[in-house]
Write a structure and sequence with these properties.
This protein is of the alpha+beta class and 219 residues long. It is built from 7 helices and 11 strands.
Length: 219
């Protein structure tokens, strides 16, 4: 499912790659991660986020519209680290929107594209947890920053940073979501790390987040 074009463009003094450069399969979304991150198959993340059965028609249709990849810096990399890890985790996805999704897209929808961020969506998440009788995974939301992005060519997006307590630890998430100028695709990057880890390595994570861009292709 996952198609990725990764090229090593920068070499350190010892001859090892400093970054892995990544584009989605359409070649329109670009970012870089340190070469120390291990790339993972993000398909299990897609199934978790969507709730689709892997053999359902919904999963098949989603696979046609969604590209994604993940990178983990843990010594024992796992897609489970998306929602809680002492080490840095990066998840990126590009969604080709349906007509219905295009009609419903908004800046708040971009904020909530992966995790519940806005007050309304957090309240809905808590209500659903109560109805199922299960303790919510995400607790004690703490907003850190929220910026609206106005990009070249009419693209727009959001860059939000927030904390959630997950189990015994506070996890910091850095979320960037960009709607292209045609309103046809949403590109999202989510960086996660324990709050102590994030504070210590904020400059490194800023470099990753700031590298996340849309590319204009010829024609």
């Amino acid at each position: 499912m996952i198609a990725l074009l990764a090229a090593t463009l920068t070499l350190s003094a010892c001859g090892q790659p400093e970054f892995t450069y990544v584009r989605d399969k359409s070649g329109t979304t670009y970012f870089k991660v340190p070469a120390s991150f291990k790339q993972l198959d993000a398909y299990p993340i897609e199934l978790y986020l969507s709730g689709d059965h892997p053999h359902s028609q919904a999963a098949l249709l989603r696979a046609q519209r969604v590209w994604s990849t993940a990178f983990d810096q843990s010594a024992q990399p796992s897609v489970a680290h998306l929602l809680g890890s002492a080490d840095a985790f990066v998840y990126a996805t590009v969604h080709r929107l349906t007509a219905e999704q295009r009609d419903a897209i908004s800046l708040n929808r971009l904020r909530d594209f992966i995790l519940p961020v806005t007050e309304q969506t957090r309240a809905l998440y808590a209500q659903q947890a109560m109805l199922t009788g299960q303790a919510p995974l995400f607790n004690r939301f703490e907003p850190i920053s929220d910026d609206v992005l106005s990009l070249d060519g009419g693209a727009r997006g959001v860059h939000v940073r927030f904390n959630y307590q997950i189990g015994a630890y506070v996890q910091t998430f850095d979320h960037t979501a960009i709607l292209d100028e045609k309103g046809a695709t949403v590109s999202v990057m989510l960086i996660g790390c324990r709050s102590t880890c994030y504070r210590e390595r904020a400059a490194e994570f800023d470099t990753i987040a700031s590298s996340f861009k849309l590319l204009r292709l010829p024609g």
